[in-house]
Amino acid sequence: MQRTDFSAMACSIARTLDVIGEPWSPLVLRDVWVGLNRFDQLQADLGISRKVLTERLNHLVDQGVLERRPYDRRPRYEYVLTEKGTELVDLLMVMAGWGDKWLAGEAGPPVLYRHHACGEISGVDLRCTHCGESMHANDVDVLPGPGVTTS
Amino acid sequence: MQRTDFSAMACSIARTLDVIGEPWSPLVLRDVWVGLNRFDQLQADLGISRKVLTERLNHLVDQGVLERRPYDRRPRYEYVLTEKGTELVDLLMVMAGWGDKWLAGEAGPPVLYRHHACGEISGVDLRCTHCGESMHANDVDVLPGPGVTTS
DNA sequence: GTCACAGAGTCCCCTGAAGGAACTCAAGAA
DNA sequence: TTCTTGAGTTCCTTCAGGGGACTCTGTGAC
Known about the structure:
Two copies of one chain form a homodimer. With 151 residues, chain A is α+β, with helices and mostly antiparallel strands.
């Protein structure tokens, strides 16, 4: 969709946006995650144009985020998350956490997450992979890495 | 930009997408975060159309994610992250982590993060706010919450 | 006092993506 | 044989994105 090609930028944020950087893709992934795996289910739930849904699904399959698999001898297909796609859902949980905090208002969060390990209704917290302490935007320095050149 | 109004959906992901759900906004936030605070700096760094940049900045200010403040007696302004915006940058770090893992390829990540607390080059890890254990997409049940109705 | 300048936009035109509705196609069911 | 269902295609209209030129406002130089 975007006219500008983000995938060529030397920035992992821009490259990720090339995969899910328009508003329907994250919602498609969310729906697939919660068990809406078929074209018509997705179309009905999201209210998205069939044309655009086709484009999004093809793009997500091309990117290796979803897998298209037949579930019948008739030409019927369903979409499931790959490992790459499942890890994108982590991003959606963080997104949902921000929306819960800043946008949900009086009514409270529309969806809750129960953590298997402890059984509690909970949310995600960002921690350093190295020391395990809290790690947020203000807790880091940004440095150039090995893949910094555009070529 | 989007013709569909995501803000009305009873979904914190959709609502968040109404704030940063098109590809330029996250990149604008990233740039502001690393110290590119002025209109022409952003325009030059991103290569974005001036018209679109104006729209994005206004939207982000309206949403309370950025603050527009004068820095001169002449009509000169710079954009800074609010607390709400800074917490969105957390989301960008998760996004960058996914891109680093799945899209960076041979060259490696273009940007590294050094954690103030431990001084190490590191990344973010998602953990349960309740028990502190790892918490990813496959580690949770999704349940309806109090704000589930659309009204 | 006038001129050039720089930052921060605004305006205009063109292209192409999003929305919406109707149409197609394959294969099993009645 | 016709009906139905899932999974798309096709076509048309409208509006957002890209690009470049233009504007506006104070300042400092001459």
